[in-house]
Write a structure and sequence with these properties.
This protein has about 325 residues and is mainly alpha-helical. Helix content is about 60%, strand content about 5%. It has twelve helices and two strands, in the order H-H-H-H-H-E-E-H-H-H-H-H-H-H.
Amino acid sequence: MASTTRTLPAAPIKLNKSRRGRLSWRRQAILQACAVLLLFTVLFPVIWVFSVSLDPLSRSRPQGLSIIPPGATLESYVQVLRQPTVNPVTFLTLALNSLKIALGTSLLSVLIGVLAAYAFSRLRFTGRQVLMIGILAVLMLPTVATLAPLFVLLNGIKFTNLPLLGNFNLRDSLLGVGLAIISGLLPFAIWNLKGYLDTIPKDLEEAAWVDGASTNQTFFRVILPLAMPALAVTGFLGFVGGWTEFYFSWQFLTKPGDFTLAMALYQMQGNFQSIPWAQFSAFAILFAIPPAVVYFLAQRFIISGLALGGVKG
């Protein structure tokens, strides 16, 4: 006689309704208060500078708690845009010079950096470790330490009677300043991009090779699109570095037509009582706008790739 087995009904599963993912109203209130405090801490200096820029009396600090000072005017912005310093150079000329340096150094540092980073990440060759340590050593040097050697090196490259240029000194040109800045940006770009490329699986490249793609096609169509967040971060930091650069520009450039915004902002300084604070503040506000615009346009890539360069060495 065959024995029959009965399957007992499964006991109902009790769901553990944990409230671990929820915050109590007290904790929410504390966190929101901290967020408001941080926001106030970040925005207060900007509001202060903006208030000073509107002050017709050019005082060094706002009077009272009013953000808009009495008799507020935009005259300081008009004066800055017309001629911010005693040099006969407009704000637009200064901004174009800074933009040339910022865009040029950013693009070249990313272009050269990603090629070198790909070689260090994927290739194994003699002297690889030594070169990487050497690049890291250069990265650790402060800007001031490289100022004198670069000055002597670039000052030795001179040409006379060039078509359209006449006498040309590489040191006393925006090109020379850009090359000096790139020498400082490249070590960071290489290490940051290499760390990100190390996280990209090699299986993707091998799959592309199986499908018939060449090494160049794999690099441009597979690796670069995946590395876009790291490229955006490196490019943005390079842009900010070129836009705000002061040391090389101040020591290398002598012609007012080649001066940058950072140099003009420094020239507006003097004794504390003689500084035109309204114009100085207006200049600072205008000076900070382009990096903010670049970050706003590229924030989707920057936020996703800001901390990805140091994942793997």
